[in-house]
Write a structure and sequence with these properties.
This protein has six helices and 13 strands. It is α/β, with parallel strands linked by helices.
Length: about 290
């Protein structure tokens, strides 16, 4: 008699967990519940939304919309390798000559200007004449690194080292792909309104921040002195990140004469949210 084959229940569950599918849909369900209970103004729109930017294809894990506005949250869900499940963040003391340390910057499309351009000549190529929306926040950081825990690591699925960088690249590719999608589908636009795209990374990692002065390192060794760094737990934070040109959408930007080209074209603010901070983040995130 042939040996009976046991169903792969546990194996399938483990693979679903390690690849983050369970975490992704649990975040979506939580967003739905918070909206239904009127604890959040963010409503679920799409999951696994396919987009492309610079000939790079991806799928956005989740997209939420704030009420009846044209502000969309582009979400990447990151279940991290438990062995490297602590994400720690610090501020850079130098970013550019005249930094605005409390400024958030996200991608946007000024619909009024697009309509005005099309009225002049419908054959003109689409241009993003206004490329960023801004808001103010205090918990903005610039550097993120993964630290070890005492947990056993995954044998497959989620990465450890480089997980933050991977998540940042993935969510920004989704944002730029969404710009390309909206530009091809004018039915998503409304005259007189601005479309804003807010990138968010939802993660199982615990989040920690430090107010350490990175410029105070000893020049001979490159090391910070002992006892100069402490960390504080956070449920969510903002990271200002300079995305690479290879991630950017293909549409020309507003004239940047007299403005900071780094912020206008490349610096984007990404929210990083632990599962424990989702409700608080939804209530506080406004663009």
């Amino acid at each position: 008699m042939a040996e009976s084959i046991l169903p792969p229940d546990n194996e399938f569950r483990n693979v679903l967990n390690s690849h983050g599918h369970s975490f992704q849909y649990s975040i979506i369900r939580l967003a739905e519940k918070l909206y239904e209970k009127r604890k959040s103004g963010w409503i679920f729109e799409w999951a696994e939304f396919p987009v492309s930017a610079r000939n790079k294809d991806t799928r956005i894990d989740l997209i939420l919309r704030r009420g009846n506005s044209l502000t969309y949250m582009v979400g990447e869900c990151k279940r991290v390798n438990p062995a490297l499940g602590r994400w720690c963040f610090a501020r850079a003391p130098y970013t550019h000559r005249l930094p605005n340390e409390q400024m958030l910057l996200v991608e946007s499309i000024d619909v009024t200007l697009l309509d005005r351009l099309a009225a002049i000549d419908p054959r003109l190529p689409l241009r993003l004449l206004h490329s960023i929306s801004s808001a103010r926040a205090l918990n903005i950081f610039h550097l993120g690194l993964e630290l070890k825990t005492n947990e056993k690591g995954d044998s497959q699925g989620s990465r450890g080292r480089g997980a933050i960088e991977d998540a940042l690249g993935q969510v920004l590719l989704g944002v730029n792909g969404m710009v390309e999608h909206i530009a091809r589908h004018h039915e998503m636009l409304q005259p007189g309104y601005k479309v804003s795209l807010v990138p968010v990374i939802f993660t199982t990692a615990t989040l920690w921040t430090s107010e350490v002065d990175l410029g105070a390192a000893d020049l001979a060794t490159g090391n910070l002195a002992p006892d100069t760094l402490t960390v504080t737990p956070q449920s969510w934070l903002w990271l200002n990140y300079n995305q690479s040109p290879s991630l950017k959408h293909a549409f020309p930007m507003e004239n940047t004469v007299g403005r900071d080209v780094l912020e206008t074209e490349y610096t984007r603010s990404i929210a990083i949210v632990n599962a424990s901070g989702v409700e608080d983040f939804f209530q506080r995130c406004e663009f």
